[in-house]
Inverse folding.
């Protein structure tokens, strides 16, 4: 009886662990400018296939969503894989399949079509880095130029341990100012109590 209970427990635990790898992380956001790049950090455990795809373009065939281009980089910024149009989805969305991706941390970048990486490292940047920001609806390098383009995208991660969007520098600056303000407020409040 004790052995039977152990076997049932082991089957239950293995069943739950296989469900954990079936988790799909999904995020929605907007690329507002033609030179804007969104960053996502994710980790892989090395024992499963990793699949990352966007499904924003085909949700609105009238061309008001982003035509994305996706890059995968190692955590140190070395090129792993790129995809612009994924024929298997029969849309203008991006997708990559990374069979048995080595365990570690990685970066996924999403940008507007034609904002290609300048080289094989993330540090080299992208084609439109340093150019004046052009609203995505006016960005003429989109394959289907549409002044009503919202820049909306939806990205999915499957087979990863964790994933997190990287905040934009402006967000971090705002958070820093907020923390600084709270520190000053707390210090003043303590000095008034002492007086």
């Amino acid at each position: 009886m004790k052995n039977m209970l152990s076997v049932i427990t082991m089957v239950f635990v293995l069943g739950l662990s296989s469900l954990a790898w079936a988790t799909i992380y999904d995020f929605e956001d907007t690329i507002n400018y033609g030179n804007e790049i969104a960053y996502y950090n994710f980790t892989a455990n090395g024992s499963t296939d990793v699949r990352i795809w966007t499904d924003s373009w085909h949700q609105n065939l009238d061309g008001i969503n982003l035509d994305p281009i996706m890059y995968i980089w190692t955590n140190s910024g070395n090129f792993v894989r790129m995809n612009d149009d994924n024929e298997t989805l029969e849309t203008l969305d991006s997708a990559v399949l990374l069979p048995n991706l080595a365990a570690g941390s990685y970066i996924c970048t999403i940008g507007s079509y034609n904002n290609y990486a300048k080289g094989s490292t993330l540090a080299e940047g992208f084609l439109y880095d340093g150019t004046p920001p052009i609203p995505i609806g006016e960005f003429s390098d989109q394959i289907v130029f549409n002044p009503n383009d919202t820049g909306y995208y939806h990205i999915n991660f499957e087979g990863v341990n964790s994933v997190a969007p990287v905040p934009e520098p402006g967000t971090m600056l705002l958070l820093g100012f907020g923390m600084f303000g709270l520190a000053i407020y707390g210090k003043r409040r303590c000095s008034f109590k002492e007086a």
About this structure: The chain has one domain: 19-194. Helices lie at 2-20, 169-194. The beta strands are 24-30, 37-44, 50-54, 68-74, 79-83, 95-98, 104-112, 152-158, 162-165.
